[in-house]
Request: fold
Amino acid sequence: MTTNPTTTDTVTEAGDHSVVLRLTDLRISTNADDEILHGVSFALKRGEILGLVGESGSGKTTAGLACMGHFREGLRYSSGSVSLWPRGDENAVEIVALDEVAVRALRGSRIAYIPQDPALSLNPAMRVGEQIREVLDIHGFGSSESERSARVAEVLGDVGLPGDKAYQKRWPHQLSGGQQQRIGIAMAFAMYPDVLILDEPTTGLDVSTQAVVLDTIRRMTVANDVAGLYITHDLAVIREISDRVAVMLRGDLVEEGPVAGVLENPQHEYTQMLMSAVPDLAGRKTIGAGAVEGSGGMTAAGATAVTKEEATSAEDSPDDGTSDKDTSNKDTSGERTTTILMDSPLLQAKDVALAYGKAQILDGINLTLNPGECTMLLGESGSGKTTLSRCIAGLNDDYSGQVQLWGETMAPSTRKRTNEQRVGVQYVFQSPFSSLNPRRSIGQSLSVPLEMSGEDNAAARKAKVEDALDAVRLGRSFYHRRPGDLSGGERQRAAIARALVNAPSVLVCDEITSALDVSVQASIIALLRTLRQERDLAMLFVTHNIALSRHVADNLAVLNKGKIVDYGPTGEVLENPTHEYTRELINDVPKF
Amino acid sequence: MFAKVIGRRLILSAFILLAVSLLVFGATLLLPGDPARAILGQQATPERIAALNEQLGLNQPAWQRYFSWLGGLFVGDFGTSTASGGPVSELIGERIGASFVLMLLAGVISVPLGIAIGVWSALHRGRRRDQATTMVSLILASMPEFVIGIGLIALFATSVFQFLPAVTLAPPGEPVWNLPLQLVLPTLTLVLVVTPYIVRMMRATMIEVLDSGYVEMARLKGVPEQRVIMRHALPHALGPVAQVVAIQLAWLAGGVVVVEFLFRYPGLGQALIDAVTYRDVQVVQAISMLVAAVYVVVNLAADVVGILTNPKLRSAA
Reply:
């Protein structure tokens, strides 16, 4: 599986006029001579989108940028070729052999790039119209000023934005994320390019915005007869947008073919693994089955606990109509019957509201959480989901209303809460890259919550931290390692272990899988599932990814503009959404 | 919108200056010694001291003196110098020009120079010239101004070469710029003190900006390198640097004191040192207020630059 893994269209190899760009055995290495791409070959055809799938670090962006003759700081071209057949030109241009000026002339005109995060890639100090106009000016579009101005307005209209002067005079920060990305698309299409490199253009966007942007890209590609390379880690998006798909693994192309063929019948084991890790709305499968282990070893005690739990929950699981959907549903239904006996729920939010000036962030939120239960808090960016979870955890004390733990109202701020209350509710942050202090070892970071609750001596603390590391399947050997040595998934496990050391009863997980690859996400989900069984842990799982719902949650709360618009058992909400917004959300999710 | 922001800052500045005036007045009250005795000398009779105190208004309560002094500031009356007997404004007036020339020269040279070197260094990040620049700027930044000044005197005026004057030669009353050569060393000293900070800050922000998504995007749009730097990178790097430039320019207002003393340059700094020596309270107060005003004005200017280079602040503020 080093080069040319599957048949790279050998039939159409010679004299195929639809091929616009061809990578042949491209190798790229770092300045320190470590090879990043090990001979990648693929071809892009007119009017067709090739999906390039792979996890972070697989080299997909490097390959995409190489198509434009661009190598990021620290990387260099070593061998292979990148050939481009520009429109109306019989002869190929060899991009990697061109000098800087010649490559520059092709960039933005013949090969255009749509970057991942429009908020970062639009110049914040330039009006949006001017940024589109710049491409036309540099590449000498048309023959007159007025022709170029007309093109700016026209291409803005093409992507579904108003093309008038007032809109062109806006600054990037005055547009929404979806509008910013459409400016990026307009910029890319302005010169009628032959090839389009799309580097995860919808990753930062909400599902409904993503649906609009994907539709725009699809439409524009066909209308302009452009060859597209769509780089992403999201297989559902690939399914929606591309015609063919190529799978990358650590700098190698391991599988390539038509989308339907590859995704339904993956040949390479890596592709199979990727496919099994993708969460789906219908919840037909258990993602991350067998992936709980992570890189560390599981303790014998932990393992037996799991099997015991599974046995009991299988016994007394009554058929509540949803049991055929998800194993996690089944597991907790047994516990639910026991918790009914308790007088008050474990965690309850009563009429929580928060406003900054006129902006109402949260509006009369009521939530209940019982032991061993997981509630998913679903919402788009700006819906107030993180604010709500911070209020519950006591990190944000500006709210009105009450948050109760075991029926007792907690003070709004963690500083005023009792030690038991602080220990009872623990928080896991979104990004494992910024939530662990890089200068402290994992063991030191994990000891902090224990030092704060101040009960044990040093030896007891170390034992508890090691237990927690075992529980998240990292193993004790991670005690002395630093976050810098760990992968994203390992770091998130360490962050979860930090929340577990004090044996909390509620875990607030704020988008904890959004920064991770699908396969890592699957293993984290599996880990959470096991932890709930082992420790009877209740969870508030905050996310924007509705596809995860059946995989993690018993209950689903849909948050829209600070209000819970739909709330109930996961299956019921997904099958019979009562609110228009929930229905739209479910419809906009790319499906398999 | 923009005017409103500036207006608000101006009002705030006025309040800051008012607070400073209180502090300055309070601090001069604490100065040891009696002005009347300082003027009349040790042999003065108590009657003469009492008469002088009466004449200077020194036996009024402190708050009354404060308000009459503050009222005077608004109409440009800085009071009477107890040492020379003449109005303070006259005494400061001839010094202001000299100090201003020095500060202006230093500012005009060091700001563009610092920005240019910082950008150049950032563009060659990690190479030898960048490392050399970083090293030199660190060494210069860690040396106090009088060390640099003495070093320059040794190099150009006394020990090594002897073609620049080590002290100011102009006789009192003659404008300093009539002998341009005597301005070279004081200016050079200030430039060498101020520039390294600007270089380091410019380099740091420029590196950050060069790594940003929009600079990569501009390159991938096919924008020529020079335009990438001038149009896409530089404007974003200037905002944070303006703050450092402001702090440096404001430092110049105070930093000239030492440098002027070193070169016997007839500026505000010299006047301040003389005034403190002779307990000339009115002059000390006036110069302190002037330096504070420079700080406030320069920082206001930096905020304006920050707002101008950031459309988000411009439209949202």
